[in-house]
Amino acid sequence: VNLKDLTIQNGSLTSEMLTPIAELPLLENLSLAYNDITDISVLNNLSGDLKFLQISSNPIEDFSPISNLSSLQKFWADSMSSSGITGLGFLSNLTNLEEIQLSDNQINDISILSSFSNLNFVSLADNVIDSALGVFNQMQAGQIDLSGNPLQCNDIASLFMELNANVSIVFDQGCNFQLDSDGDGVPSYQQVQLFK
Among 94, 99, 132, 187, which residue's Cβ finds the most Cβ atoms within 10 Å? Predict the structure, then answer.
């Protein structure tokens, strides 16, 4: 079968029902959000051309099959049940990723993303991230959403200063600080406020 796009959302799809996906080697876009999937090992058969994967709102227990999807460019896994995604180690081989949406999980350590040079949209809202310093230095343009995380104002200010001018950051904490963009010790802007 030459199917390239498959969307099965808002149903009662279970892991057992995913078996036929293994027979779709040309699949490029797969959306399985809002189902009852616990096992995604069938993804091991799709390592070739899959570029977009959405598995949001499923009670998935093991994310390791995603690590084989080397062509993946967009990955969405928001609201992953009560336990949520806690670590990002399964993404380490996916350096082609351009877009990541992992809001409403339990992610704390995002340092692994510092080696991803193709990122242009990252949504990590409503996690437990307390530091993002040095993580997004390679981003040339795009948006980062860190709203709903326990970041401190001084961390946000430092993150803002290290980002490329074409990268915007979204967060939900009102912070006042002065920017010294040219390093001469004199703030370039008085009391810049950054909020969501």
Answer: 132
